[in-house]
Structures are given as C-alpha cells and as structure tokens.
Automatic annotation (TrEMBL):
Protein's UniProt name: Enoyl-CoA hydratase
Organism: Neobacillus bataviensis LMG 21833
GO molecular function, one term: enoyl-CoA hydratase activity
Single GO biological process annotation from the record: fatty acid beta-oxidation
Source species taxonomy: Bacteria, Bacillati, Bacillota, Bacilli, Bacillales
Keyword Translocase applies: no
Amino acid sequence: MGAKNILTETVGDVEWIIFNRPEKLNSMTREDLLFISKHLNYISTNKNIRAVIFTGSGDKAFSAGMDFNEFNQLTPQDAYLLISDLKNVCQLIRKIPQPVIMGINGYCIGGAMEMCMAADIKVAAKNAVFSMPEINLGIPSVLDSVLLQQHVGLSLAKEMLLTGEPVNVEKINQFGFLNAVVEKSKLKEKVKEYADTFINKPYETIKQQKELFETWQNSSLDYAINDSMNQFALAFTTEIPQQRLEGFISKRK
C-alpha cells in the first residue's frame, strides 16, 4: 500500500514506510507529505504496531528531501503551507507512541534529514551522506534544524546550515548523531534488530517515555522533573510494573 512515491508494509508488529522514487533520489512531493502524515496518524491509534521504520528504495538515497519543483513560484502563503506540512510529519514522528527508526541508505538531504532529526533511532549505512542545502536556494533551514546543534555540536551545525555542504557518516557522527553505522548490506537487519527490541517493551511505557522526551525539550528543568515524577506515579495505575517485576523475579530464581 501507499501513495505514488511512498510504499507502506506491515510486517508482524513493525510498519515499514519506504520512499519509493529512486529515479529522483526518493525526493518527496507535497502529496507525499500529506500521505505520510495521514499514515502516521493511523499508526498512532494502532496498538498492534509496535515500531516504525523509514527507509529508501534503491542503492543511492534514503531521500533527497523535497523535490525542487515544489519550491517553484511559491508565494509566501504557499511556502508557509508547504513547510507546515513538513512540520506536521516531523511532529508526528516525535509524538506517535511507537518508536520511529530511520534506516539511512545513501543521501539524506533537507526535509529528509529534518525527519531523521525527529526520529528516535537513526541507523546509517557507511555510504550515507547528510546535507542541509537550503541556504543554496536562498531559504533558511528550519523545523528540527533547531535541534541540530544538540545532535552534532554548534560548530558543525553552523557549518552545515551556513554552507549547505554535505558531510559523511564519520563527520556527522563525532557527537553521536547516529545510533549505529553498518555496511549497506546489513542496514535492514540492523533496523529490524532495533524494532525487535522495542516490540519486547511495554507499549504504554514507551508511549510515556516518548511524551517525556517532548516535555524535556519544551519546558524548564523544574517542570520537567515534576512531570517525570507524575508520569512515574501514573505508571502504577496499570498492572504493567507489577507484571514486569514478577517476571524479572521469576527469571532470577
């Protein structure tokens, strides 16, 4: 299933979302963004899906971001609507209850890199290349670029956003931007390994933890800590902690 340029496949408890426009380096249209948003909204209500994996078709690219044609002749109002559609996708990646894993094969550019910055886990093939080239089009990098300095340090963030020049896996990963780097032939296996790990964790607890990450990014230290304490207490309104504790104790006997 999927849109013209996006394939989706449910394999067991895992949902795969695949950029499928290899002849255009898997670049995205506005229609693709709207489809991804709709599909992520569906996933957010489906407790049978325990993890989400994004990757790209072909050997060259994860995704080259937005198709340049989408920027042609935009009015300021149209530009705002387009960037709002990308914002919605990034927010959903951050906020859906399921962990979102990126399997980055090849070029990861612009809007696609924004989506990666919003994700929970990022696994890249050794041939991956990262770029935020918006400056070369006369537009600033926005949305989850706000977090780029947290991911890669202020100096590299400024270099990437002010020059638009691409960087390789080794350079971008100096500060741990990626969770794992593997041979291209092992990429699918590695992202599935992460997904399998999450499948074995309690759905509601993963959901709580993702909500806390959002709180921590968007509030003061005192508020974040107090909210964490409330979430800790709320966990005990369910039977999950006791069930897990009993299982842990039984394994040790």
